[in-house]
Amino acid sequence: MTEVIPRRRRRRPHTRIIVPVASFYLENFGCRATQADGAALERQLLEKGLSRSDQASDAEVIVLNTCTVTSSADQDARSTIRRIHRDNPGARILVTGCYAQRAPEEIAQIPGVSVVVGNSHKHQLAEIANRPTLVKIEAQPSPGEVLVGDIFAHTELMAAPVFDADTASEKTRPNLKVQDGCNNRCSFCIIPFVRGKSRSLKLDHVLSETRALVSLGYKEIVLSGINLGRWGRDFEGRTRFVDLLRAMLAETDIQKIRISSVEPMDWSDDLIELVASSHRICKHAHVPLQSGSDRILRRMHRKYRPWHYADRIQKIRGAMPTAAIGADVMVGFPGETAEQFEETRAFIDSLPFTYLHVFTYSSRPGTPSASMPEQVRGDVTRERNRILRELAARKKRVFQEQFIGRELETITLTNIENGRTEGLTDNFQKAWIEGQWDANRVVQVSIDGIHGEAMTGRVSS
After folding, report:
1. Alpha carbon distance, N-terminus to C-terminus of the chain
2. How far is CA 123 from CA 3, 6, 144, 148, 163, in A?
3. Which of 135, 264, 364, 383 could bridge 190 with an S-S bond, Cβ 3.0-4.6 Å?
4. Residue 391 CB neighbours (<10 A)
C-alpha cells in the first residue's frame, strides 16, 4: 500500500492543547455502498471506545463519508463541512469517501477540515479519529492533513449491515455490501477511480454476517455492491454471483434475499432461473440501462447493445411475470440528439419496466466524457428527464393495477398516519396496510387499491 504522506503545511502555533477524544458524529452521503462503508466505520469507532453523538454540534470528532458521483454531491459535502464548522468550531472534521479520494487537496482547503482520508485509507479512519485531539491556536489556520494513496492497490473491503428503515426501537431490511470497486470503464463514471478494482467479500464472511442477522430476527436482507454481479470473479476458479446466492439459501435460514442492481450481462440464464424458482429470493430485478440508443451506449463504453439488453429483460419477465423490473437511465449524455433520446424513450416504452431511476448527466473531472463536445443544454436535459419520469409513472400504475384483488407477500416497515403500516412487497411495491403492525414481519396483504405511488390493502394471513 502507498506510504502515508501527510501534507499539512505547518505554522508555529501559539498554544497546543491535547484533549482525549470521547464522542463522534458520522454522516453518510450517496449510495448503498457508501452507507455500508459508514456502518462499518461506525462499528469500528464504537469498538475503539468512542460514543455516538446524535448531533454534530455535540461531537468532538465529525466523520463525513462522501459521494462524488455528481457535482451536486460534491456541493452537498462542501456545504455540510462549512455548516458543521460554523456550528461546532471546536470539532475535528474528518472527511472520507469517494469525494475525498477524488479531490483531497480541494477538501483540505475548506476551513475546519482536520484530515482528509481517501478510500485507500478508509480502513484506518477509526485509528485516526481516536487520536487525542491536538488543538492549535494559530494566526492562520493551516490546510487539513491528506491521507490518500493508490486506490488500485487497495485490497480492503469494508462491510457492515446498514438498515433502510427505522422505527422507535427496531430496524428492518439490513443492506449487506458484498462487493466493492469496478473493472469497467464507462466514459461518464468516476467510480472506478475512487473505489478501485472489483473485489469480493469472502463467502464465509457473507454467510457469518447473514447468520448473525438471522439470529437477531431479521427477515429480509438486501445484497449490494458497486458492481454486484461481478461478485466472486476475483476468486480462484469459476465462482459467480449465483454461487453466492445458492450458498446463502443452503447454509443460512434467511427468509428473504433481495438483490440490488446487477448489470445486464450478469443476468445469466442460471441467475434468472434461480431467482424465479426460489420463494426466498425477492422477485425484483434492477438492471442498469443508461441509454436505449446504440450510438450513445457505444460512446458511454457500455458493454452491451440494446438488443442484448432487451433479451435479458424479456427473459426475466418471461420467468417472473409478477417481478418488479427497474433500470437506471441517463439523459443528456454529451452528443445525445433529439433522435437518439427518442430511441431511448421508444426502447423503454417497448419493455416491461415497472419503474425507472432517471438521472441527468453530470460531468465528472477526469472522465473521458467530460471533454467530449456537444454538451447538452440544461433546459433540454430537464425536459427529457420529465418525459421519462412520466413514462415510468404510467408503467408503474399499469403494473400495480394488475394486483388489485390479489395477495402479495409483504414485509412491514413502520407505522404511519391514519392507523396504517407501511410495508414493501416481495416485488418492490410500497404498500399501505390497514392497522398498526410491528416492524419486520412478513405478512400476506390483500391489495384493494392504489393511493399515489402506494398500493393499499389489509393483512389476510
Report:
1. 55
2. 14, 17, 19, 12, 21
3. 364
4. 17
Across the beta sheet with 355-360, the strand order is: 284-286, 324-331, 355-360
The string of DSSP letters for 25-36 reads EEEE-SSHHHHH
H helix or E strand, kind and range, residue 43:
helix 32-47
Residue 333 and residue 188 in contact, taking contact as beta carbons nearer than 8 Å: yes
Q: Show Cβ contacts of residue 215 under 8 Å, excluding neighbours closer than 6 positions.
A: none
Q: Report all structural domains of the chain as residue ranges with CATH numbers, in order of start.
A: 15-152 (3.40.50.12160), 155-401 (3.80.30.20), 407-459 (2.40.50.140)
Contacts of 90 by beta carbon, 8 Å cutoff, 6+ apart: 60, 135
For residue 359, give the DSSP letter.
E
Strands of 198-347 (E only): list them: 199-200, 220-225, 256-259, 284-286, 324-331
Amino acid making up residue 366: G
Query: Grid coordinates in use for 174?
Result: 439490513
pLDDT one-digit tens code per residue, 293-350: 999 999 999 999 999 999 999 999 999 999 999 999 999 999 999 999 999 999 999 9
With both helix axes pointing from N to C terminus, report the angle between 306-319 and 338-350 in degrees, rounded to the nearest 10: 20
**pLDDT tens digits for 73-102?**
999 999 999 999 999 999 999 999 999 999
In this structure, are residues 116 and 108 in contact, taking their beta carbons and an 8 Å threshold?
A: yes
| The residue type at 316 | I
Alpha carbons within 13 angstroms on the beta-carbon side of residue 98 total: 28
Parallel, antiparallel or unpaired: strands 145-147 and 113-118: parallel
| pLDDT beneath 70: ranges in the chain | 1-21, 133-142, 159-160, 162-170, 461
Distance CA 451, CA 92 (A): 46
pTM tops 0.85, yes or no: yes
Cell numbers of 50, please? Answer: 468512542
User: Quick one: the chain helix, strand, coil %, rounded to 5?
Assistant: 35, 25, 35
